[in-house]
Design goal:
The protein is α+β, with helices and mostly antiparallel strands. It is about 40% helix and about 20% strand. It is built from 4 helices and 3 strands. The chain has a 3-stranded antiparallel β-sheet, with no helix packed on it.
């Protein structure tokens, strides 16, 4: 499970993939659930803890990107979901200002 983040830094294209690989057999043996259930359940629990502990706080509706990721990533690793970051800048080109085909064009 992962996320590819692309953007520009100092005018240069950058792309980083942050991901976690959770072993199904290990999770099932330990908790009796599939790895996807574990990956789906643990992150919201960590976020709720960070909010309850007032490590993450704010007013109104806030997106996860508005919070400091470090406490989240530290707890994620402690909960058995170690993560890695891969620099994909050389492999992923940014499509900036390039028109994409409409759904109708792709479906045709």
């Amino acid at each position: 499970m992962g996320t590819l983040a692309k953007g520009l830094k100092n005018g240069e294209s950058k792309a980083f993939y942050i991901y976690n690989v959770t072993d199904h057999e290990t999770v099932f043996a330990e908790l009796g659930v599939q790895a996807t259930a574990y990956q789906t359940g643990i992150p919201p629990v960590i976020a709720a803890r960070l909010i309850a502990q007032r490590i993450w706080r704010g007013t109104g509706v806030l997106s996860p990107e508005q919070f400091n990721p470090d406490p989240f990533l530290e707890q994620l690793a402690r909960e058995g979901m170690p993560w890695r970051i891969r620099d994909d800048s050389a492999r992923v080109a940014l499509t900036r200002g390039v028109p994409r085909p409409s759904r109708e064009t792709v479906a045709a």
